[in-house]
Design a protein that fits this description.
The protein is about 45% helix and about 20% strand. The protein is α+β, with helices and mostly antiparallel strands and about 100 residues long. The protein has a single domain (about 10-100), classed as Transcriptional coactivator/pterin dehydratase (Gyrase A, domain 2). The structure holds the ligand C[C@H](O)[C@H](O)[C@H]1CNC2=NC(N)=NC(=O)C2=N1. Belongs to the pterin-4-alpha-carbinolamine dehydratase family. InterPro entries: PCD_sf, Pterin_deHydtase.
Length: about 100
Amino acid sequence: MGVPRVLSDEEIAENLAELPGWERKGDEITRTYEIRYHAAVAAIVTIADRSRRIQHHADLDLRIDHLRATVTTHDAGHRLTAADFDLAHRIDAIVAAHQALPLD
Ligand SMILES: C[C@H](O)[C@H](O)[C@H]1CNC2=NC(N)=NC(=O)C2=N1
């Protein structure tokens, strides 16, 4: 498969412009979502399932009322690639769906 192409600073900025809430921190992108703990656990299961299928995984940090997702490409030497932005969009959609779920 080869090493994925590392994005330039300009490409990273362009991609980030399509991802409100995400920010660049060095060679990672990260977003913190406000989401209740139980809903976040469900979101994490869905994110894990999707990650397995696309073979791209985020670091996920769950706290009491928020979830932080951090993404970089290990196979590119911990640099940012198109796969990171694809995953970020997927995580946004999954978290939004779980934030919208009514509480029991
Ligand atoms: C073999 C497997 O496809 C690789 O190890 C995948 C798995 N998930 C991954 N996730 C992330 N974030 N970066 C990678 O380079 C990566 N590589």
